[in-house]
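sorry for the late reply, my laptop died twice this morning and i had to redo everyting from scratch. anyway the thing you sent over, i finally got around to it. pasting the sequence first so we're on the same page, its 280 residues, then the predicted structure underneath. double check i copied it right bc i was rushing
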Amino acid sequence: MALSSSDPENYRFEHFSIKVMAGDMRFSRDALRPGQHLPDLPVTMADGGSTSLYQLADGKPLLLATGSITCPMTVSSIDELNELQEELADNINVALVYVREAHPGENFPQPHSLVEKTDNAKQFQGDYDIRFPSIVDGLDGQLHQLLDVLPNSAHLMASDGEIITQSLWLGDVGWLEDVRALIISDGGSEKPLIHGPGGQNKISQRMLMPFLKGAGYMHDTLNKAGSQAYRELVRGAPPVSLLSRTAALFSFLPNDKRGLAAAISMAVLMGLVIGLVWLW
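ok and here's the structure:
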């Protein structure tokens, strides 16, 4: 559920909880939808520059992705976004909207100043080789709240601010492929059109595969955030914490494969336990 900018304490939560996680499962009813327009907001960039959303689009579609250094889902999707920007640089612009910390910890607490938030955004760019610009959103998430206060959502807008399509998770590879095909098929149009009857692909809220992919990055990301982040995941979402720790056992696999391997292993183990109990 989107929070009002007049509610900064709830927006800038200091501790992760199941309530926070529950709000990340779907777009809220208040979220801007495809066909609606983002205003031409002034934005501050991590490099210290100032511009506006429409200037950042520069006559092309603009893909905005929300994220933070403590969000495993964001970390898991950086490579795909780098590739998209490099492959279609002539036809699309990409920007990260650095928002509130998803899992604040001792090393990356919830920022209390724009200086702190900018420092986090800069470190995120450097640590993960982010090759596209980062917007540092205001402390109370002015842009984030227009997009919906999700940790790693993605929004493709036309150069005039109209939202074309959006995804609950940037790591939704199928949605990114749809965006790639859309941009290519429309040949660099400032306002690409959703194809297909009824524009059925305008909103994606797929959860399973993006989540399993992100789970493979969870252990390292939360440890980087600080022990508080892991403790609060254990208390707030024990099954997710177990998946994270199980995925970490598959360190011989690429990060993006670990979550699925962990989920399969946990399912097999649970099946064996149930079978043994039944036989007993």
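The radius of gyration is 19 Å.
thats about all i looked at so far, will dig more tmrw
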